[in-house]
Amino acid sequence: MDKAIEDSGSAVIAVLPAEPETQQERREKRRVKKEPRREPNYHVIIWNDEEHTYEYVIELLMTIFSHNAEKAFQITKEVDQAGKGIAFTCHKELAELKRDQILGYGADPRMPEMSKGSIRSTIEPAPE
């Protein structure tokens, strides 16, 4: 291998030429650059309680998630029957925002004696 020699003032520095990149290495670099890193998904969960009506949960789902009435009803039914339901699935930052919007939604005005605040909501990692 030939060495190129550069004069840097009073010091002499030997520089090796770069090894040529193979076509396979160039393809691999392009492939790696094109594949975006996937963020893991999270479920926004709504938990059942006795302080909020079906109407409240349906209204909340339509307002915060823009679900249509049918989808909002199906999620509400799942919450009632299973004790919890998945309101939405998205990346973590948006899931945290949506959970916080649920927690800030307020009490159910249809049940003023019982409902003192928003319905309970959490996030959890969605299975891959």
Strand order of the largest sheet: 4-3-5
What CATH architecture of the largest domain would you give?
A: 2-Layer Sandwich
Biggest beta sheet attributes: 3 strands, antiparallel
What are the secondary-structure elements, in order, as H or E? EEHEHHEHE
Q: Report the strand count.
A: 5
* Estimated radius of gyration: 28 Å
Assembly type of the chains comes to: single chain
Low-confidence stretches: none
Q: Do you know the CATH topology of the largest domain?
A: Ribosomal Protein L30, Chain: A
Structural class, from secondary structure content? alpha+beta
The helix fraction, in percent, is 25-40%
Query: What is the averaged pLDDT score?
Result: 88
Describe the structure.
This protein is of the alpha+beta class. 39% of the residues lie in helices and 23% in strands. The strands form two sheets. The chain has a three-stranded antiparallel β-sheet with strand order 4-3-5. Strand 1 and strand 2 form a beta hairpin. Helix 2 crosses helix 3. The radius of gyration is 28 Å and the shape is elongated. The chain starts with a strand and ends with a strand.
Question: What's this, in brief?
Answer:
By secondary structure, this protein is an alpha+beta fold.
What are the SSEs and their pairings?
Blueprint: E1 4-8, E2 11-15, H1 23-34, E3 41-47, H2 54-65, H3 69-82, E4 84-91, H4 92-103, E5 121-125
